[in-house]
Amino acid sequence: MGQALCCVQVDQSTVGMKEQFGKYCEILEPGCHCVPWCFGYQLAGTLSLRVQQLDVRCETKTKDNVFVTVVASIQYRAVTENAADAFYKLSNTKAQIQAYVFDVIRASVPRLELDAVFEQKNDIAKAVEQELEKAMSAYGFEIVQTLIVDIEPDVHVKRAMNEINAASRMRVATNEKAEAEKILQIKKAEGEAESKYLSGLGIARQRQAIVDGLRDSVLAFSENVPGTTAKDVMDMVLVTQYFDTMKEIGASSKSNAVFVPHGPGAVKDVASQIREGLLQAESIRH
Asked: pTM score, two decimals?
């Protein structure tokens, strides 16, 4: 019906190419246009002005001989002022863009090692964009954005990289664990040393108190009971303590004490040993 009335419709964000007897005449903007076919006019086709995206997968080799697949995403659009060039000069726009992307990537990546490819992907994207902009502007296209969206090494290389990374992290974790255990052992040793030091001070004070108490008891008993010697008093004190100890052991139902052959007569030997120890301590003090 539109052809019968010599009318054509051009959609939004699209331009039409008007020809007369096969020769380009003008660009038709979005809307309704009269194209009288009886005078040789016709609509040769339409061209979208929307931003389009082309994903290009390019396999290449790095400087350290690792094959990688680089995925580049190219966003482009036709320029309204040069729509005729974009429509007539290129028969396959996507193939042309893909060829330029292959050329730039395969010229840039082989100069870099694998780690550098990941680090400098923005530089690679910029190089691709500059080359495309310079080449495609002559055909009426504008390069909006170029992105390197993925870098895929060979699956075996990827597995090896993960293993290297895992081993490196394991080594760091082992060192940290060893340092923690070292600190723990040092702190434990310091705590034990401090505990033993304080325990020694407590034992020394306890023995000093016992000595002082025994001395006071001996002096008091000698003064109140004439004719007794210090030896008599010490023997009596030790016998008293001996029987008190035996009483406490016998009164406990869960006692785990180990008895060795002994008798009350052995207290005398113990008393002599204690007396000698006290005399030695007293001589050292003086």
From this structure: 0.54
